[in-house]
Amino acid sequence: MSNILILGAGRVGASVAEQLVHERYNVTIVDENPESLKPLADRLDLRTVVGHAASPAVLAAAGAADADLLLAVTPLDELNMVACKIAYELFNIPTRLARIRDPDLLAHPELFIDSNFAIDHVITPAQIVTDYLVSLVETPEALQVLDFADGKAQLVATRVEAGAHMDGQDLASLNRLLPKIDRRVVSIYRKGHRVHPDGNTILQVGDEVFFLASTEHIRDVIKEMRGTEIPIKRITLSGGGNVGFRLAKALEKDYQVKIIEANRERANWLAEALPNTLVLRGDATDEALLESEQIERCDLYFALTSDDEDNIMSSLLAKQMGARKTIAIINRSRYVDLLQGGKIDVAISPAIATIGSLLAHVRSGDVVAVHSLRRGAAEAMELIVHGTPATSRVIGKKLDDIKLPSGADLAAIVRGEKVLIAHGDTMIEAEDHVILFVDNKAHIREVEKLFAVKMGFF
């Protein structure tokens, strides 16, 4: 798959385009606003077309006849749906993805079949981001939690804390501290730079450690990096939009949840829709409001409005006033690196969080899941190995005998119900789900080629 047609040059469209261009795909992006396209054309090697996303003439001019995949991410659900139908009927584009936000439409999946709007895969960014945030609530000492193999294994990023068992220890010490728990540290980031891990690598306070383990063992490994985990009870959300509402709904039965919402009408609606959540109308950057609501007793503060500056300021204020941990949505991806790990514990770009679910459909081979890491610089992927020893470059071989591209690390294999952490003598079998960490996206194509079935298989 090499020719990708993207409709909509907003944050998600632009972010996906940038990722795909860096991976050497042929990308064309369509938008009605030339001002949205110009910055992309100036800095990326892609083609831009000004026009309406559901116009057959515009789609033809954008190369729809030769496109392998269409991604419709304009701001309008209806436009994305119609564009997919036209792409299917007039241009026979093989794979069509659309962003759909309206819950009323999402409640009727029959709308998306080929005989209706012909959408192969529906992307709902608000739900993807919500699921991501829920995983951070469930594993509160993590910076990132990513599921693989239907939740059997997780890749987790956590930061080494002063006084933890692993502070100042080499990675080999994990064998002594966790003798019965298999896990694999796939990467360490220290002051923004990657440290390739081996048994002699000594961890330092502030290191971001990425490790993979069976889901049931994740908390045990985190405990060695962080110390005793304090349970989460009280959660405050700033912003009752799509993500704020979905997150409160997911959490309100198990936690004490408050939402601060500035819009009176929206606040009234939230109060009716969320019976177990306390809804407060006000401004989350109002120090008096935070003080009256005892923000110092808050275990987890989420800044979820659509305004980056408000999210940054309210998170900083909440932290200064005593909130234990702050997580902020930051729409401008370039701000994320500046903020994460300072007074704001976790900064999340919704566009980057969404990209993984899109990339899984772009990758060659049988890719099950893709997750962007390190603000899009690295990637973790799960793919299924097909073929036989005669038609595959990896089946029947030990990991030590497989030449992985530089910066790629095969972390685990899921075989049936078993999660097997990869070691040098681990042998790959047909139909294994392999989980890989790739620290540089430039090497993704090499990884795909290594695990692809040789042409003779067909």
What is the CA-atom radius of gyration, in angstroms?
A: 23 Å
Which strand-content bin applies to the residues?
Answer: 25-35%
Structural class call reads: alpha/beta
Main beta-sheet strand count, sense and barrel state = 6 strands, parallel
User: If strands are numbered along the chain, what order do they take across the biggest sheet?
Assistant: 3-2-1-4-5-6
- Proportion of residues in helical segments: 25-40%
Task: Describe this protein's structure.
By secondary structure, the chain is α/β, with parallel strands linked by helices. It has 4 domains: 3-123, NAD(P)-binding Rossmann-like Domain (Rossmann fold); 129-135 and 145-225, Regulator of K+ conductance, C-terminal domain (Alpha-Beta Plaits, 2-Layer Sandwich), CATH 3.30.70; 234-352, NAD(P)-binding Rossmann-like Domain (Rossmann fold), CATH 3.40.50; 359-451, Regulator of K+ conductance, C-terminal domain (Alpha-Beta Plaits, 2-Layer Sandwich), CATH 3.30.70.1450. 31% of the residues lie in helices and 26% in strands. The chain has 15 helices and 22 strands. The protein has helices at residues 11-22, 34-43, 56-61, 77-91, 103-106, 125-138, 173-177, 218-226, 242-251, 264-273, 287-292, 308-320, 333-339, 350-362, 444-451; strands spanning 3-7, 26-31, 47-50, 69-72, 95-99, 121-123, 142-148, 153-159, 183-190, 193-195, 208-214, 234-238, 256-261, 277-281, 300-303, 325-329, 346-348, 366-373, 378-384, 408-415, 418-421, 433-438. The chain has a 6-stranded parallel β-sheet with strand order 3-2-1-4-5-6, sandwiched between helices. Strands 14-13-12-15-16-17 form a 6-stranded parallel β-sheet, with helices on both faces. Strands 7-8-11-9-10 form a 5-stranded antiparallel β-sheet. The chain is globular and about 60 Å long. The mean pLDDT is 89.
